[in-house]
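Regression check, fe (ii) ion case 349:
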Amino acid sequence: MDTFSKSVEEMSINSEEPPQEYVVKDCSFGSIESSDPSPGSIPVIDISIFSLSSSHDPQEVENELEKLRSALSSGGCFQAIGHGIPSSLLDKLREVAKKFFALPAEEKHKYSRAANEFEGYGQDRVVSEKQILDWSSRLSLKVFPEDQRRLNFWPENPSDFKDILHEYAVKLKGVMDILFKAMEKSLNLVEGSFSSQFGDNSLIKARFNFYPPCSRPDMVLGVKAHSDRSGATVLLQDDEVGGLQIFKDDKWINVPVIPHALVVNLGDQMQIMSNGIFKSPLHRVLTNKDKLRISVATFNEPEPDKEIGPVEHLIDEKRPRLYRNVKNFAAFNYECFQKGKVALEEAKI
Ligand SMILES: O=C(O)CCC(=O)C(=O)O
Ligand SMILES: [Fe+2]
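Current build output:
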């Protein structure tokens, strides 16, 4: 068996030196050591204030909307508290994820992803020989629309995996709705300016990330620097182990672990819809020598066939249209990636 087909889980158990394919050589966004270890400036926003049932003072709401607008137009990222998803459910979601990744390899391979597909269990999609591989395994599942679920990829073991993911996804959809309304309000847009662009059958995809310990955290990344191709991404981090970093003001900033907060970062499609006002941040994940890390990312994407583009109200002489309309951005993004191009740049006018 060549090193290429060995899983990171296997290599981690044997404390193997990572093969060349995993070693980050020339990173155009700064080397791994260039990380700024100082506590960063990722804002924490109490989003309970944005919910319909909230009876807060209008000035207080206004202040929080301003905080949201500022977070999304600078770093493109914040930590949401007051989201209303019970802590016990978040703990259970991390628990079923841990149990799944702890299964024997043969058991997990029942859910293996086909080479050219995104759903299922596996590692990076390899598109070029020069590609540096991520030190992680993933399980990707489409959760909405519900009738598009491919349940053969949803683990039978642990037996409560499906129910817990479903319960989380339903609650998360509610959180996303609140967030989109707040984002629209924060830019004085009419309700639906962003959300209606997603269509009635918008997608929510979940990605369970597993980062086993790595003997060379100085040379290998859990996930290479990337921006998400989603509209918005909500991430449940590990409750103990950090590693996620956001590129902000030309520095890598650590996203602190707040066990029951949800990290919200925008994806490329919201940068397009907001005509570049909101940012889709570059982010990456460091590896850890001793501890494994788990995260669950959920991506909200427009219906693939729906054309999206900058909201008219955000285009004027001072801020001319930056992006053209695009559709099926996920496929477009993948195509660009294969050609070594950046999708967001290619969508520019
Ligand atoms: O594991 C994390 O903290 C981030 C994962 C991520 O960026 C992704 O799945 O797109
Ligand atoms: Fe990401």
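Comparison notes: The longest strand covers residues 203-211. The mean pLDDT is 92. No diff flagged against the previous build.
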